[in-house]
Design brief:
Strand content: 25-35%
Shape: globular
CATH superfamily of the largest domain: FAD/NAD(P)-binding domain
Structural class: alpha/beta
Helix content: 10-25%
Distance between the termini: 59 Å
Number of strands: 23
Strand order of the largest sheet: 3-2-1-7-19
Number of domains: 2
Order of helices and strands: EHEHHEEEEEEEHEHEHEEEEEEEEEEHEE
CATH topology of the largest domain: FAD/NAD(P)-binding domain
CATH class of the largest domain: Alpha Beta
CATH architecture of the largest domain: 3-Layer(bba) Sandwich
C-alpha cells in the first residue's frame, strides 16, 4: 500500500492530505502534529482574544475529521529527525515511521529577542491557541500591556487587547508601523486610527530589557525611556520550523528550498506553507510567503505532485488583506518600489472614506 506522510496539520498539510485522498482513495495517509486537538485557523486567534469569536468557532474541521477522511493521525508528537536514506521519520518518543512520499508542512514559530527578562511571568508570544489561552488567563489581573513589534500580528493583538479594556503601547524598531505591509502614507493612516483609539505607538525604538520581580513591571527602551506595563507580547516576526532538519541533508536557506513542483533536493520529500522558500513572481527570487492562502495553494499543488501528477507551482506574490478597526486594507507586491524609472506611483485618496 502506498504511504504518504505529512508533518503538520495546518493549511498546507490539510490541503495536501485532502488532495491526495481524492486522487488515491485507498492509500495510507499519515498526518503528524505536535498538537493534539482539531485543526484551527491561526488567522482567527485575535478574534478569540477580543471575544468576537468563541474558541470553538475557529476550528476548521469537524470532530470526526481524521476518521472520516481515513487519515492516520499522530497528535502530540514532534518530529526530531528525518532519515531520507532509510525513508524514516523519527518522533520525540523514539518511534520510527516509514514513508514513501513525505511532505514537510511544519509552519513557523515566533522569533524571540535575546534580552534580559524574557522569561518573566507576563511575557507572551502570540502564535497558537495555547498562547491565546495563556494570555486570556493573565489579562484578568492586569490593566496594561506593551506589544513589541508593530507588524500585522502586533497591530492585531494590540487592538484585541485594547478592546478588552487594557492600555496598550506598541514599540516598533522601524520608523513606522506595518513596515512590511504598507508604505509610509498607508502606515500613517493606520497610525492615526490607532492613536484616536487610545493606543500609544513608539517607533525607532527597541526593548532592551523587561524588568520586574518575578513578573513584568516595566520595560527599558533603546531610547533611554522606561515604560510601565503589566504584560509584554512579543510579535517581532516568525521563522520556519526547520531545526529538526539539521542532519537530514535537505537543503535549507531561510526556509526549505523547494522547486516548481515543491520538491526539495530529495525527490520524494516535498515542502509547503510557511516553511517553504518558493519563487516570488514580483521580486524574481526565492523567498518565504507565510500567509494562509499561499499555504493552502501550495499544499494542494504538493499533493498532486506527490501522487505523480505533474503540477507546476507558478510562484507567489506577497499579499495581505486585513481590517484595522473600521478600515479595510489590501496590500500586494512591492511595498516601496526603488527610486528609478521602472515604477510609477499612483495615489487616490478620498477623505470621505
Amino acid at each position: 500500500m502506498e504511504h504518504y506522510c505529512i508533518i503538520g496539520t495546518s493549511a498546507a498539510g490539510l490541503s495536501a492530505a485532502e488532495t491526495i485522498r481524492k486522487i488515491k482513495p485507498k492509500a495510507k495517509i499519515t498526518l503528524i502534529s505536535k498538537h493534539l486537538g482539531l485543526p484551527y485557523s491561526r488567522v482567527l486567534l485575535p478574534f478569540v482574544l477580543d471575544k468576537t469569536l468563541k474558541k470553538e468557532e475557529i476550528f476548521i474541521r469537524p470532530k470526526n475529521y481524521y476518521s472520516s477522511w481515513n487519515f492516520d493521525f499522530i497528535g502530540g508528537r514532534k518530529v526530531i529527525n528525518i532519515e531520507p536514506q532509510h525513508f524514516k521519520i523519527i518522533l520525540d518518543n523514539g518511534k520510527k515511521i516509514t514513508y514513501e512520499n513525505l511532505l514537510i508542512a511544519t509552519g513557523a514559530k515566533p522569533l524571540l529577542p535575546d534580552i534580559p527578562g524574557i522569561n518573566l511571568n507576563g511575557v507572551f508570544c502570540f502564535r497558537s491557541i495555547k498562547d491565546a489561552e495563556n494570555i486570556e488567563n493573565y489579562i484578568k489581573n492586569v490593566n496594561s500591556a506593551l506589544v513589541i513589534g508593530g507588524g500585522l500580528i502586533g497591530i492585531k493583538i494590540a487592538t484585541s487587547l485594547q478592546k478588552r479594556g487594557l492600555n496598550i503601547t506598541i514599540v516598533e524598531l522601524q520608523n513606522r508601523i506595518l513596515p512590511q505591509v504598507l508604505d509610509s502614507t498607508g502606515s500613517s493612516i493606520v497610525n492615526e486610527i490607532l492613536y484616536k483609539n487610545g493606543i500609544k505607538i513608539i517607533t525607532n525604538a527597541s526593548v532592551i530589557s523587561i524588568e520586574g520581580k518575578n513578573k513584568v513591571e516595566y520595560v527599558n527602551l533603546s531610547t533611554g525611556h522606561r515604560i510601565s506595563c503589566k504584560m509584554v507580547i512579543i510579535c517581532i516576526g516568525i521563522k520556519p520550523n526547520i531545526d529538526f532538519l539539521n542532519e537530514s541533508q535537505i537543503k535549507i536557506n531561510h526556509g526549505i528550498i523547494a522547486n516548481k513542483y515543491l520538491q526539495t533536493n530529495i525527490p520524494n520529500i516535498y515542502a509547503a506553507g510557511d516553511v517553504a522558500e518558493v519563487y516570488d513572481l514580483v521580486l524574481k527570487k526565492y523567498s518565504l510567503h507565510p500567509t494562509w492562502p499561499v499555504a493552502t495553494e501550495q499544499g494542494r499543488i504538493a499533493g498532486y505532485n506527490m501522487c505523480g501528477i505533474k503540477a507546476p507551482y507558478q510562484g507567489a506574490i506577497i499579499s495581505n488583506a486585513f481590517k484595522i478597526k473600521e478600515l479595510h486594507i489590501i496590500s500586494a507586491g512591492i511595498i516601496e518600489p526603488p527610486d528609478n524609472q521602472k515604477y510609477k506611483n499612483i495615489a487616490i485618496y478620498d477623505e470621505k472614506r
